[in-house]
Please model this.
Amino acid sequence: MKRVGLLLVLLISTILCSCGWQAKPAAPAAPSTFPAQAPDKARIVGKIILQGRMAHGGTKVTVGDLPPVTTIFDGSYAVSNVPTGQYFIKAVRPGYLCAQGYVTITIAGETRTLPPVTLMAGDLNEDGQVDLFDLVRMTAAFGTQDIADPRADLTGDGKLNLFDMTLAGNNLGQTGPLVLESP
Ligand SMILES: [Ca+2]
Model:
């Protein structure tokens, strides 16, 4: 009986080997999304959400004179290697009211998390308010095959339709900038 069992094990092993079966190699470590951080500098992280969108990437975040960064798909951003000091921070996205504020870094090596901010949609002409001028722009572009003004596609689905119009219409009268600051 033992011999039969042994043969069975050998047979299965042979079949598995001949099929090229082998343990999968460990997946390579995912590349770091954000740049390396110097230990004597701080990092500022946060999230910028785009109202009316499923994908929140592509917003430019600037801290002082440091190189601007761009948010990733979930709206996250990280500004690395920030020396201690006070900085003006701004998040800008065409078609949306911007957000801005001040952040003070006092501890080298800290990671400062700013509260998430939702940018409100509809400021097509980027004058800091959602008003009739913006709606006129949207109406002019509405129904065209090619979206002449890509900013009018507020929901980012490649179409200009009632969802975009409703989004801007509901924000009529809203003004910026929105507040983006340390707690
Ligand atoms: Ca406007």
Observations:
- The pocket of calcium ion is lined by residues 123, 125, 127, 129-131, 133-134 (CB under 6 Å).
- Residues 42-121 form a domain with the Immunoglobulin-like fold (CATH 2.60.40.4130).
- The helical segments are 2-18, 132-141, 162-170.
- Residues 2-18 form the longest helix (17 residues).
